[in-house]
Design goal:
single chain; alpha/beta; Lysozyme-like; binds zinc ion
């Protein structure tokens, strides 16, 4: 299933905890890929060696503070261009509230500060790669959206939002 995902970091490789449970989402139900950000400056590490620990931190927060079954996102991408498998494909996300029944979610590991190019070219390419993967597997995909299209939030920041909406 991961053939189209370049630079995939498996759950084992990032040290993921096992999910408490798994809710399936059929590929035909997926109408949107939704882009998020973690909104944490500290998630933008200079060295990629530190990225798995940041993803583990998000998973711990989602499981221990929110009580969710797993990290909320289907994938997490970092500014170095790596794609961390979160819940993965065919699994319902917990990231986008009312849209969870018809979307999958990718989260950028970092903030979106005006004029700073947080996501970097490599991070944007990783998001494009996730989009290509979803496009190849979801027969009813309508497009890419931002978290803010479905809920009252600034996520994923103005620049990342414009990028998300530009993806065809
Ligand atoms: Zn979000
Ligand atoms: Zn990284």
């Amino acid at each position: 299933m991961s053939g189209l995902l370049q630079h995939l970091v498996t759950r084992k490789a990032w040290g993921a905890r096992p999910p408490r449970s798994t809710s399936r989402l059929a590929p035909a139900a997926v109408r949107y890929l939704v882009v998020h950000y973690s909104a944490m400056d500290a998630d933008e590490q200079v060295s990629h060696v530190n990225c798995p620990g940041r993803v583990r931190g998000i998973q711990n927060y989602h499981m221990d503070s929110h009580g969710w079954a797993d990290v909320a996102y289907n994938w997490v991408v970092c500014k170095h261009g790596y794609i961390f498998r979160g819940r993965g494909w065919r699994v319902r996300s917990a990231a986008t509230g009312p849209a969870n029944g018809f979307s999958v979610a990718v989260c950028f590991l970092g903030d979106d500060t005006r004029g700073r190019d947080d996501a970097t070219a490599a991070g944007r390419e990783a998001i494009r790669s996730v989009h290509r993967f979803v496009g190849a597997h979801a027969p009813n995909l309508e497009g890419v959206r931002g978290h803010r299209d479905f809920m009252a939030t600034s996520c994923p920041g103005d620049e990342l939002y414009r990028f998300a909406r530009s993806l065809k």
